[in-house]
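Weekend entry, working from home. Most of the wet-lab plans are on hold until the incubator is repaired, so I used the time to fold the two sequences that have been sitting in the queue since the last round of cloning. Logging both here for the record. First:
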Amino acid sequence: MEHTRRTQEDLPPFVDAAWLKAHRSSVVTADVRWYLDGASGRTAYDGGHLPDAVFVDLDAWLSGNSGPQGLNPLPDSAVFAHGMSSLGIGDDTTVIAYDDAGGVIAARLVWMLRALGHRAALLDGGIAAWTGPLDTTPVKLTSAAFTPSPWPEACLARLEDITAGASGIIVDARNADRFDGSLQLPTDPQAGHIPGAVNVPCRGNLAPDARLRPSAEVRRAFAKVGIEDATAVISYCGSGVTACHNLLALEHAGLGQGRLYAGGWSEYGADPRRRAELG
């Protein structure tokens, strides 16, 4: 897709706060705070957000209903388009997204937009990287025209790809304790990981200041598990949210674009007949 290639060349997956300050008037800044424990991202936004930032409700616009396809399947393309339109994000809008977790949550929005050929990037370091004052003033929303488009099959892996032994390297973006099965969260249908998967925790992409590590360090981390070309990668996590951060980190490091398994462990592990691997 020519539009996708042009987007990648014009805007990398991560930009810093200086870039955002220089371009604030020509972008939409999106606050995508969301918490696995059920805490309210909207409440966090209301308590202080970047100036002019809109709040993007992950459950409403970036996820379909929980069910057989996992906890956070991709939404219907019309739902996503309606959500973006209502927030003032149109076909030609550049979006810079952030959260308070180094981007591992906001990556979901950025990946979705970029997969459809739109200009989008993460604010490197998230809200903590912003040196100016935060705002508590509600943002007045003006709708924009966002054209619904099907999710590109070339960007996705499905459950049948996983169970049929998909070619490539399956990468689990969860923390090591969930990967090896020593920790099972209430959202995990069982302990462990997809057989044959390797573990590159997405939070390991971040330095202690929550900024993305240098590209050379990111490449080394993936090279340790045999990844030197992202086109061979299928990225998953618990439910297809933080797995997007690994895909964006790979792209930013110059390794190309992999595929997202959005169902993740919440879909694969939901059937006890499917084998889980421990350790």
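Second, folded right after the first finished:
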Amino acid sequence: MQISSKNYWDLLPAIAGIFFTLAFSPFNYAYLAPLALGLLFTSWQNVTPKRALLRGYLFGLGSFGLGVSWVYISIHDFGGADSLSAGLLTCLFCSFWALFPALAGYLSVKILPVNKGLVSVIVMPVIWLLVEYLRGCLVLNGFPWLQIAYSQLATPLAGYIPIVGVYGTGFLTALTAAALVAMLQSKKHRLLLTAVLAALWITGSVLQTIKWTDAIGEPIRVSLIQGNITQDKKWRPENKLGTLQYYKTMTEVHWDSDVIVWPETSIPAYLSEVNEWFLLPLSKAARQHHTDLIVSLPAHGDSTAEKYNAVMTLGKETGMYRKKHLLPFGEYLPWQPVSGFILNSLGIKLGNFTPGSIDQPLLKAGGYAFITSICYEDAFGDAGLINLAAAAYLVNVTNDGWFGDSIEPHQHLQIARMRAMETGRFMLRSTNTGVTAIIAPNGKIISQAPVFKEAVLTDWITPMHGMTPYARLGDQPVIIALIILLFCLIVYLRLLSNKPLSTNR
């Protein structure tokens, strides 16, 4: 039995999707991202929209099937589902997000039925990034995992991050992929494309030498506590007092630090349960040692039905931040009542939190205001720009213990590095089981704790001020520019030819 060349081309995108994921942490083969995307773009040329949709879907299955398979650990090990149910839900999760590369393929070929030379170099990258934006911000509260720009933090394209952020840098990466394809397929514009790519990447290298923000004070000493309390033990009532005593003891050893940060929900009890006998004495001790504590715990609102995932500051400055961007199916249930019925029938119990208000006052610690994000929130660049001009550094508290010893904590750290680069500020990232790290404004990791170890990470950071171009403008100018560019390309193609074009692959 012979396998047709069409079948080979259908298989290629699935393999390319796997290679695409290898460009991200912890693998970090960054240059595989444009190469894998280039293979996908090649497979979309001169085919029907339905065939491009299939190939995009296979690419998504390869990419998400490897890249977010850690969802199984959360559902099975900590969500309480049996192996079969967890496996089916994981497959459903990956299959859903694979629809977005499929959509990109369908739209690309619908707009551009055949290879149009230089037009092809632009159309596919534009559509790819607009679909990334749709997935990353709009659908199900956004799922920005494996967006192409995150793979480029160590390449020259990283120089563009403080200017155009994750979507602009992603477009330049996808543009690189499309240009490489065009250069290999035809000699007609090879010299021009070579010059454009060379200028693009050399400019990126030069931009990496620019400091967009400046110090506004002396360095401050910070300590980040990594408790390494596994998720299956964290909320057991018999462990609560021991957990609180552990964090208190670790804190008292580091009263010489200006700021001490605990990870997400490090306090396994609601604020009302621990405020009087634990938090108030702890805050008093912090003031006596001229230290500020940043802790995390759940808190009720005006009623017990109103629940927040929160961060509190204790010591000289006290305040509370309530998580704004909730995790779907983890902290709230979309598509009710269907999702609730399915998960309840499988015995999976998840949280039902209330989102905090968008414009909350900044918390202060170490004498400076900072931007707070809780876990998943650091995956959204725009969300951290509100009041950024008044903030001197970033703090992210996370509990990636939900995903065990998988690739997820490393991917999440990569995302956090992007936020530091976009804003030109140090990032303090305190996690329960890893990866706890202090990140410089250029995205470099200053110090990092080993995963799944009890650790306290102590170092110095410098308060920063000033705004990068991205911090001033956010994602919207890039997205609007891409939409306008796509509209112009569609008009141009309609004017160029209205004749139907046959397909041969």
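Plan for Monday: verify the second prediction. Residues 6 and 267 are 56 Å apart (CA to CA).
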